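Re: export button greyed out
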Amino acid sequence: MYERGLTSQALKLALTAVRVCEVSNQECRLLLADCWTTIGGVQIETHSATDSATADSYNSLKTALDLRLQAVTIGLMNADHPQIANSFMSLSSAALGLSVRSSSTDPAREAVELAKKSIGLREKNPTVQEQMHSLSYHNLALAHLQLCELGEAEEAATKGLEIARNINPSTGATHTMYFILIPLFYRFC
Amino acid sequence: MIVYDNADDQQLLAEYWPRTTTGAILVTSRHPESVNSLTKAGKEVTTLTQTDGSAFLISMLHNGELHNGNQHLHSSVTMQLSKLLDGLPLALWSASGFIRQSGCSLPEALDLFKSPPDLFDALEGGSDAQKRREKEYSLRTVWELNMSSLSETAAELLGIISFLDPDGVPESLFKYPGSSLRSMGLQTFPDYKAYFKSVISLKAYSLVHSTQSRGRQEICIHRLVQEAALTRMRPEHWQRMFRSAVELLWAVFPKQCEEGQLMSPFWQECLIYAAHVESLESRYCQSEFMLQENLHFGELLYHCSW
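Workaround output, generated via the alternate export path:
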């Protein structure tokens, strides 16, 4: 439902799933993390221009990441599992959302750090989830852009574009996205 | 014209069936198949369409209820009521009686009827004397008689279907239920033959009907039949049927891979079962206190939400 844009239905089911997990005596950290990922994703997609809505998505995705890191600690999941990288990437997006409304650079700085952690994990297995790998660089570029770090933004965008080309050299859309991004760096910063 | 009312016994009906070839025969029965062997030229009176149901409801209400306020709003509400009551003439007749007696407005009645436990109380409302008189003919009584006559497997099938979306339960859901249910200690259908016999039985009692939709064979059930079936369940039975419905859906619903990849290749398949997952979730939310923990249910909700 989330993938198809049925966000309110997705949110309702995911919240109920959280309630189901919370009354369970069985180990369900990973399932809970998945549910909070859906909830946070829906909140990012549907947030209005309010601080609290953006903070909600950050908190949901932070919960998801924390649960996955706990799972790593107790041996339920490998530290380099793709879902850990996905979690860092999603939280980076949420932090970026917070930074847009913040006068402080802290959220943007956090978005950069989280994106780098996601990338760091993906570089260990570069052929796994290449699209997400490219997106992680895209998010890093946006975070640097938010900080007006143009050189770093361009470097990240270029790297993301390079990975995207490797996935499908004939696809023009991703290329177009990055070619638009780079001139914007110079116009709006 | 001859009318056979509540003609459920086929043998008895055959004894009194007219020998002439002219005239008209009207039969009411809880077993529609009872007349099939007696005549080739017949027509089953099915439920009303939404429009006809709305018109029927309007005709049953006194003019006063409809002349106060906006006519367009009223016809919109009667259309919604007709849909909510699945075009069942008896349900619409009962609803009109409730509206007249209670004096509530049409929008108020619609809000009330949307709440399933209140729906039956409203449809069977009236004085105690009236309730006793009409008990024989009440919807719940009719369905109670039918449901109490079902075999154990047919009753279990009805119980499971009562938790799902009423507008099309794919038969594929029941094709390979045995192993997943047995592993959970829920012995419902030993094989597909048992399921098939159960469906025939449910159809014979007019509790469900089959349709062909989008190339699939589906079972449909009236919402009111679902409510009647759920209302008569004891709590432990309710738990078991809910769990069975969860396990059946969990066995067939596409799962997201561990790496969290997109499920777009499975969208069409997800669409077949999504409404049923939502129906289960709705029942869970209505009766959370009744349910034991069920992690498969949590997983089902997650995969459908993603």
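The CA atoms of residues 170 and 180 of chain A lie 18 Å apart. The button fix ships in the next patch.
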